[in-house]
Amino acid sequence: MIIRQDDGTFAAVWGPYVLRSAFQPIFAFYNGRATVVAFEGLIRPSRDGEPVPPATFFASVPFAERLHVETLTRTLHLGNAGACLDPDTSIFVNFDPSVFGEKSVADAALRDMRLVLREAAIDPRRVVCEVTEQKSASEAALHRFVQALKLQGFRIAVDDYGSADSDVDRIRRLQPDIVKFDAQWITRLMETGPGFALLSTMVSAFAEQGIKTVFEGIEETWQLELAEKSGASMVQGYVLARPQIASIGQAPSRHSSGKPSTLVELPDDQLKNGRHRRADPVRGVFGRRTKSP
């Protein structure tokens, strides 16, 4: 069940849990500046008023209820995106491929998405459907589902690329618009010269195929520097901004270019000299709309 709250945002109830949306900004580089271009929807559960780790919540969901909970959380994120987020930004939402093995299930999910987007006044082209990089029950069914998403105007991202189940052939078959690299994997590669060279080569190879890349889990300034140097299309992580619970408040300032507010600007000397220093997370920044009077 989804409930509209007093401030105009939405929360959901599933059993004893209250579910809220948190949005984490995703950034692109523009002339040495990291600028918000998208947000990822993340679930923040609570029980009896106390926060519950998302992993604990999802582990408590029986398999028979997973599709329902997936639909509930996605609906929640899209409703809050329509209420809160800058309409010029993209919205990343997750899909678990293991629950879309049957065509009837996939068709129902698409119908639900169309209704939610219409209600939230969100253009499907703003939505990036993240397919988790894990084995599905049927690769053929997954391929059909991804193609159906594309036909509806959604963009496709493969999540956690580089983890144990990664498969270059799967990327070739699905032909996503975006590949999100696994945080731990890219951190290991960044720690050595040969590893970073391999990472940069992969980014270039994807770019040649028209596929954008996102580096997740960027927590250190030196990682941010290397991400830009590698040519990564976008970056996401605590060094830039933490997830924040959806709320309606003051909208961010804009540049004359019309891009959303810049949160981080890297000093030129730091970029050139590769100085490694820890950066404090940026707090209190969120791509919100103002509440209507």
TrEMBL record:
Region (Disordered): 249-293
Gene3D superfamilies per record: EAL domain (3.20.20.450)
PROSITE patterns: EAL
One Pfam family cited in the UniProt record for this chain: EAL
InterPro entries xref list: Cyclic-di-GMP_PDE-like, EAL_dom, EAL_sf
SMART domains xref list: EAL
Gene Ontology terms for molecular function: cyclic-guanylate-specific phosphodiesterase activity
Residues covered by the EAL domain: 2-257
Name this polypeptide is given: EAL domain, c-di-GMP-specific phosphodiesterase class I (Or its enzymatically inactive variant)
